């Protein structure tokens, strides 16, 4: 087995009626360390597909009972993403074009060249491996989102526990909801509370100041939410103009990109260490969009940093990517004394530590927690990658918990 080959978890299905060809194809798969099953015609193969999973399908077109083309058509109905390699003696151009339009991965004409077929199979296996990884990551993202919603519900319940009156409970609950995301629902609730609580004195009403202040605050929050949502929609409709830039010049001008955010760092006595790098590598970026990324990552780092700490920004080249990392130290103790068994509710817990941070709302461009979603969107438009995760830092005098937000931008390779 070639150790460099990415092997999917499921076997290859060989759809071939001739025994000698089955043995040959199984031998190639065995050399690569991939399990196989065989089917003598398309109908048998289709029955297999309905009860088990396969990574790659190697299909002959000339088969009894159900031919290869019909099998592929039925297979694509069952699994549109199925990876199929055709190996057939039919070499007419019209036939090849017709079959390739079904969405097959490759078409190999018999008698097969063993080296070429092996190469095609390796590419198909690696492609399937990557597609499976992509699907798994998408599923994990969905699980993370559900976990985050569960965490917010738990945190909400924890905060309102122990309040000693209905009205205080209501105000506290609404204020908390406002800080985590308010809007029309809260406005309606606040107006209902005002109506129940107000006193009529002639042509005027006497109302609860705390309720009214919360209503005004929610109104401003709602304005910011609408503006933030509008900004996200507008951004996703914009064209991205990628222009060549040197990684060195991008890093050199870093302080200027963040000049609106830096003044807020003093609120928590936080300093920022900017990166230095000397490299000639080139990248293609939309600078205005990347500034949004840098601002959002610094805001996120600020929100969850402990007081009197430092946010470190690093830059380096790794493989064919230029990497920029934001690192911030987080509190050893979880917010509100949350027991460890509850922390598992969040699989990506970079935001779980503290209550919402409101002193930086004035410079936040995106609402409802969409900032990191915007970061991911922009980096994807640059053909790059974005990751954010917890880590333990052992480089200082003491061990510290921290969060790493990393963006990877592809380096523009020089053509020879």
Strand and helix map with partners:
Blueprint: E1 12-15, H1 19-32, E2 36-39, H2 42-51, E3 56-59, H3 68-78, E4 83-88, H4 93-100, E5 106-109, H5 114-160, H6 166-181, H7 184-197, E6 199-201, E7 204-206, H8 209-237, E8 243-246, H9 247-252, H10 254-257, E9 271-273, E10 282-285, H11 287-303, E11 310-318, E12 321-329, H12 340-343, H13 371-381, E13 385-393, E14 400-412
Parallel strand pairs: 1-2, 1-3, 3-4, 4-5, 9-11
Antiparallel strand pairs: 6-7, 8-10, 10-14, 11-12, 12-14, 13-14
Helix pairs in contact: 2-3, 6-8, 7-8, 11-13
Written description of the protein model:
46% of the residues lie in helices and 19% in strands. It is an alpha/beta fold and 416 residues long. It has three domains: 12-134, Rossmann fold; 162-237; 243-412, Heat Shock Protein 90, CATH 3.30.565. The strands form three sheets. Strands 8, 9, 10, 11, 12, 13 and 14 form a seven-stranded mixed beta sheet that branches. Strands 2-1-3-4-5 form a five-stranded parallel beta sheet, sandwiched between helices. β6 and β7 (204-206) form a beta hairpin. 24% of the residues are buried.
Task: Produce a short descriptive summary.
With 416 residues, the chain is an alpha/beta fold. It has 3 domains: 12-134, 3-Layer(aba) Sandwich (Rossmann fold); 162-237; 243-412, Histidine kinase-like ATPase, C-terminal domain (Heat Shock Protein 90, 2-Layer Sandwich), CATH 3.30.565.10. The chain contains 13 helices and 14 strands.
